């Protein structure tokens, strides 16, 4: 009898844990359905507004969603006048973006961490770095054309557009470490390298990953601008530019939507990484 009485609290705790788990799963399911519902509604409203605006303007230069969807299918299956399909244009642009983005991450993140840990170095070089940061990436296009060729031209322009904002955001993320944790570690005799590697940098990782997600937008801006001025025939920017000169606005809009879809997929991928790596972080709900 005594053993049975001892086992009863264990069973009750197990049942409570299972109930809490079921409630949590149900809440996540409700939240997911709510998000899907709101996104579906916003997409429907956008399409209706687009179709209504197209009918109101009644212009061939602002085609509606039905015309654009037919053009999308044609480009998807048959391709453009050069024979390049829409997936191939998207693949080439995405490949260029990822290369330039990767090059910027490999340089901006380590440098941002170093200068975030030793801010006097940043303040001592600010007279050079800050003016360079404010030069628009488009201003570098003539130099990119002169000194680079082929793929290197695109990688350089994307690197310029991504490096400086990622560098600044990384450096600021490193400086947000809790002074309390740092002071406690110093009192306990921790070395500077231990504090940097075990406290400051891990604390900055969520901000760094968030910064990487944020700078994907300027990366796409740079690749579209670079492809528009390049002499090559492939790429979403080139697709938009070529058919804009022919006043084929339906193809232009297809290219714009393709860039938006790729950006959405990359953003969702980064958000999935954030949710996986930083589960301990909780969003503040109002």
Explain the overall architecture.
The structure is a single chain. The chain is mainly alpha-helical and 286 residues long. The protein folds into two domains: 58 residues; 217 residues, MetI-like fold (Orthogonal Bundle). 81% of the residues lie in helices and 0% in strands. The protein has eleven helices and no strands. The longest helix is centred in the N-terminal third of the chain and has 56 residues. The two termini are 50 Å apart.
Q: What labels would you give this structure?
A:
flat; 2 domains; 286 residues; MetI-like fold; 81% helix; 0% strand; mainly alpha; 11 helices
Q: How is the secondary structure organized here?
A:
Layout: H1 2-57, H2 65-77, H3 86-117, H4 119-133, H5 141-147, H6 151-174, H7 179-187, H8 192-214, H9 216-229, H10 236-245, H11 249-277
Helix pairs in contact: 2-11, 3-4, 3-6, 3-8, 3-9, 5-6, 6-8, 6-9, 7-8, 8-11, 9-10, 10-11
| CA gyration radius, whole angstroms | 26 Å
| CATH architecture annotation name of the largest domain | Orthogonal Bundle
Given as residue ranges, the uncertain stretches (5+ residues, pLDDT < 50) are: none
CATH topology of the largest domain: MetI-like fold
- State mean pLDDT (0 to 100 scale): 84
Which word captures the global form? flat
Query: How many beta-strand elements?
Result: 0
Helix content: over 70%
Domain module tally: 2
Distance between the termini: 50 Å
The main β sheet shows up as: none
By CATH, the superfamily of the largest domain comes out as: MetI-like
CATH class category label of the largest domain: Mainly Alpha
Assess the beta-strand content as a share of residues.
under 5%
Helical run tally: 11
Give the class from helix and strand content and strand pairing: mainly alpha
Order of helices and strands: HHHHHHHHHHH
């Amino acid at each position: 009898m005594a053993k049975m009485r001892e086992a009863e609290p264990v069973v009750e705790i197990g049942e409570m844990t299972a109930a809490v788990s079921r409630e949590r799963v149900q809440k996540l399911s409700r939240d997911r359905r709510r998000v899907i519902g709101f996104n579906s509604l916003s997409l429907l409203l956008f399409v209706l507004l687009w179709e209504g605006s197209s009918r109101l303007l009644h212009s061939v230069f602002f085609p509606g969603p039905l015309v654009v969807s037919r053009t999308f299918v044609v480009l998807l299956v048959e391709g453009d006048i050069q024979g390049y399909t829409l997936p191939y244009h998207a693949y080439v642009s995405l490949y260029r973006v990822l290369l330039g983005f990767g090059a910027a991450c490999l340089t901006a993140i380590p440098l941002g961490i170093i200068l975030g840990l030793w801010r006097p170095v940043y303040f001592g070089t600010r007279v050079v770095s800050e003016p360079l940061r404010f030069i628009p990436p488009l201003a570098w296009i003539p130099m990119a054309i002169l000194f680079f060729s082929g793929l290197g031209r695109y990688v350089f322009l994307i690197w310029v557009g991504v490096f400086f904002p990622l560098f600044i955001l990384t450096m600021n993320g490193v400086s947000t470490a809790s002074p309390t944790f740092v002071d406690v570690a110093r009192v306990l005799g921790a070395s500077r390298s231990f504090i940097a590697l075990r406290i400051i940098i891990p604390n900055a990782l969520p901000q760094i990953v968030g910064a990487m997600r944020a700078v994907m937008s300027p990366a796409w801006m740079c690749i579209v601008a670079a492809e528009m001025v390049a002499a090559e025939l492939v790429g979403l920017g080139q697709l938009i530019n070529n058919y804009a000169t022919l006043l084929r606005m339906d193809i232009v809009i297809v290219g714009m939507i393709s860039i938006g879809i790729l950006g959405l997929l990359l953003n969702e991928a980064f958000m999935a990484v954030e949710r996986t790596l930083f589960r301990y972080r909780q969003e503040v709900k109002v």
